[in-house]
Amino acid sequence: MSAPKKVVLAYSGGLDTSIILKWLQTEYGCEVVTFTADLGQGEELEPARKKALLLGIKPDNIHIVDVREEFVRDFVFPMFRANALYEGLYLLGTSIARPLISKHLVRIAAECGADAVAHGATGKGNDQVRFELSAYALNPHIQVIAPWRLWDLTSRTKLIEFAEANQIPIAKDKRGEAPFSVDANLLHTSSEGKALENPANEAPPYVYQRTQNPEDAPNVAEMVEITFERGDAVAIDGEAMSPATILTRLNELGGKHGVGRLDLVENRFVGMKSRGIYETPGGTILLEAHRGIEQITLDAGAGHLKDSIMPRYAELIYNGFWYSPEREMMQALIDKSQEHVSGTVRVKLYKGSARTVARWSEHSLYSEAHVTFEEDAGAYDQKDAAGFIRLNALRLKLIATRNARVARK
Q1: Catalytic one among 127, 249, 342, 361?
Q2: Residues whose CB is less than 8 angstroms from the CB of residue 333 and which lie 6 or more positions away in sequence, other chains included
Q3: Fold (topology level) of 182-360
Q4: Which listed residue (68, 98, 210, 359) is catalytic?
């Protein structure tokens, strides 16, 4: 691998990526360009700009981009059309952000003539895979630098020493072992490591940042109505909103009622198990509502096919294959299924739960005339069921007859 001349770094402004920034400068003597994405993580991002300037980055080489609308519109919403859950539980909040960050790293590299991009993911995690697979899918010739796999700064002590030797500001709470690490964006927060590493220990209350303890949530339930068009949420309580605004509002409502907490031991793509605490309040409500509107607008065959491919679709996103042809093929199928997924769902929020209690749509396939226990005016002839059952029972009867014959011998 030849030494890069110009590198675009995914930069948060935190200690680790600040150390990486200085390490790139000292290790390769290269020019560094920083990219900081506003994904709705809830932090002020101007300190990242000031820190980059302090570390010698030219003002024109500092990129802070608000990608909240793009994130929800082009990544979160397509994923939610599939009702994607990794290992049946995880709403993929970290996973779905990485291809967007990589997209902008590659874009900025092309615009400024950089020959490499860099990230701060460790060699033990999934994010290194997601960043790099996405980058190579978008530019097969890009060079990707992963310092955690290259340097000898293998402990927190060595990182602190490097920071002090290079006049990198260190927050006081970083002088020692952090209790856990956090990744956050508009879809979720993810907390891992240290105090959470032993799955036999219950997560301490201070880990949760976005949701109220369900036991302390309001004693009165709250209703929210979410309107969908072609599988995407477009309004809350009748008020049209942008994608990011919708998710922001649902986060507020879900957080208030303690919705969306998950304590999960998951299987990482690199082979190990890890324990994480996830908070996805708005996403949990959105998934429940989307399932609710599909119940009356999606044909059984289409819905069951969608459900059958969902685990594979979710696994592709988790493993970093957002830009793969198979994910795009699945997306085309999923999007086709959403042509009539339009209407409104009422969800009840109460002490950690989000439950669909009503749904209606002009595209509904639900026929009260067919399912009623009262007179149905000839909409359904119950005698038809006898022939239906006889035909479906034929192969079972033949198998039972064969088995009885063989048993007698």
Answers
A1: 127
A2: 305, 306, 309
A3: Argininosuccinate synthetase, chain A, domain 2 (3.90.1260)
A4: 98
pLDDT at 175: 45
Residue 63 has pLDDT above 80, yes or no: yes
Catalytic residue among 73, 115, 156, 181: 181
- Residue 1's pLDDT is 66
6-67+96-176 homologous superfamily: HUPs (3.40.50.620)
Question: Contact at 8 Å (CB) between 12 and 48?
Answer: yes
> In the numeric block, which tokens belong to residue 263?
């304590």
Whether 399 and 332 have beta carbons less than 8 Å apart is answered as no
d(CA 257, CA 213): 8
| 98 classed as catalytic | yes
Residues forming CATH 3.90.1260.10 domain(s) in the chain: 182-360
Q: Could you give the residue range(s) of every CATH 3.40.50.620 domain in the chain?
A: 6-67+96-176
Single pTM value for the model: 0.93
pLDDT value at position 380? 85
Catalytic residue flag (residue 127): yes
Of the residues 12, 16, 190, 361, which is catalytic? 16
* H or E element, residue 133: helix 127-138
Active site residue 16: yes
Distances (CA, A) of 77 to 13, 80, 233, 300, 406: 28, 5, 8, 22, 56
